[in-house]
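Severity: low
Component: inverse-folding endpoint
Summary: output formatting inconsistent between runs
Steps to reproduce: submit the following structure tokens with default settings.
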């Protein structure tokens, strides 16, 4: 299984915890882990490699500092968020697909059913966390036809069809859209992916592949849905994603899904014989 991460130096310990969860629950025996970065030191790289996780090999790819110099960045949305969009042009050409994962997530069941899924004519598989009304507003903001069937994509979990993207798009296309629309970009990487490729995304079930406490609460608040508890999540969900500001490594956390992060962290600490914190 090919896995992709995009990090800066502050995310090393989160990547360690995420990788630990994959080693425990990811379902495969061999993982080729690619890490895009711009500021990792040799010490950081060794800290990741020395986890000693079975079946994992690593390739660290340093991104040239000027490659995304013209893209809008903020403290919350650093340059690294764009690296995943350029994956087809930065990864080895022999790779035909890769699973991109944010580091603020935990894998709790097998990734193989997702990884082996058929793309059909699509270039990505991903989830949306946006309802119909906001999706329509986002289409207008991004210069799309509001009636076009284009979902607003969460980019934290992306199965990427590298072969199709190499054949049909370019980094310059991404760069030009970012330049033309930079004044309206709010969540820049998600905006760009939605605008350029939203009609080439196969939607995944967020309750399975991109679940957060907010998504869980919204689902359970809908009277049409049968209530879901922690036991259901443990059995059926695959990826728990702590996106936004509600993160279990902060002092205050609201919800029940932090248990999966804490269980994985405890396993990692026991493995390393030391305390590991983001």
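Observed output (run 2 of 3):
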């Amino acid at each position: 299984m090919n896995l992709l991460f995009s990090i800066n130096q502050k995310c090393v310990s989160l990547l360690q915890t995420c990788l630990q969860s994959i080693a425990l629950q990811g379902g495969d025996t061999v993982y080729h882990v690619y890490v895009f970065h711009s500021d990792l030191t040799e010490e950081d790289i060794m800290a990741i490699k020395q986890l000693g996780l079975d079946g994992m090999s690593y390739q660290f790819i340093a991104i040239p500092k000027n490659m995304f110099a013209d893209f809008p960045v903020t403290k919350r949305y650093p340059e690294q968020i764009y690296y995943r969009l350029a994956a087809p042009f930065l990864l080895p050409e022999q790779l035909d697909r890769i699973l991109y994962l944010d580091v603020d997530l935990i894998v709790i069941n097998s990734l193989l059913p997702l990884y082996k899924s058929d793309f059909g004519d699509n270039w990505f598989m991903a989830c949306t966390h946006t309802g119909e009304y906001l999706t329509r507003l986002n289409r207008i903001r991004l210069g799309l036809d509001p009636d076009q069937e284009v979902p607003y994509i969460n980019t934290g979990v992306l199965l990427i069809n590298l072969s199709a993207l190499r054949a049909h798009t370019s980094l310059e296309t991404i760069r030009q859209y970012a330049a033309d629309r930079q004044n309206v970009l709010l969540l820049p990487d998600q905006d760009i992916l939605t605008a350029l490729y939203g009609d080439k995304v196969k939607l995944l079930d967020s309750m399975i592949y991109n679940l957060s406490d907010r998504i869980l609460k919204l689902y359970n608040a809908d009277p049409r849905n049968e209530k879901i508890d922690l036991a259901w999540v443990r059995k059926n969900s695959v990826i728990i994603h702590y996106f936004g500001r509600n993160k279990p490594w902060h002092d205050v956390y609201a919800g029940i899904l932090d248990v999966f992060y804490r269980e994985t962290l405890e396993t990692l600490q026991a493995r390393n014989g030391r305390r590991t914190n983001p």
